[in-house]
Amino acid sequence: MMNFHNGLPMASIDGYLHIIGIEWLLILAIVLPLIDRPPAKRVLSKLFLSVLGFMLTHFATHALPDKLARFIYSSQHEYHSLKSKAPYRT
């Protein structure tokens, strides 16, 4: 959903997270081949994998929000007891 401020479109925090994550991945992908020292390369590789893992998890939560929520709530007994057997009424 696009927010507007003074008639101009504003990006959401979620959009900023996408942009920042992609920028980090690009920067690390460019810098990694330039590093020759193994300890520094190992740290940057772990950072790259961490950012990539975060981004993949973040995208998965966009792609599967209902399935993810059903899985989380179905695994908790407290949520089962809150479900009503009666029809939903407004």
Question: Would you summarize the structure shown here?
Answer:
By secondary structure, the protein is mainly alpha-helical. The chain is built from four helices and two strands, in the order E-E-H-H-H-H.
Structural class: mainly alpha
**Mean pLDDT, rounded to whole units?**
78
Radius of gyration (Å)? 21 Å
Shape: flat
Record the strand order, biggest sheet. 1-2
> Which sheet architecture does the biggest sheet show?
2 strands, antiparallel
Distance between the termini: 27 Å
Low-confidence stretches: none
Oligomeric assembly: single chain
In total, the number of strands is: 2
Structural notes for this entry:
By secondary structure, the protein is mostly helical. Helix content is 68%, strand content 7%. The protein has four helices and two strands, in the order ββαααα. The chain has helices at residues 13-31, 38-63, 65-74, 77-82; strands at residues 3-5, 8-10. It has a two-stranded antiparallel ribbon with strand order 1-2. Strand 1 (3-5) and strand 2 (8-10) form a beta hairpin. Helix 1 runs antiparallel to helix 2. It is flat and about 50 Å long. The relative contact order is 0.08.
List keywords for this structure.
7% strand, 68% helix, single chain, two-stranded antiparallel ribbon
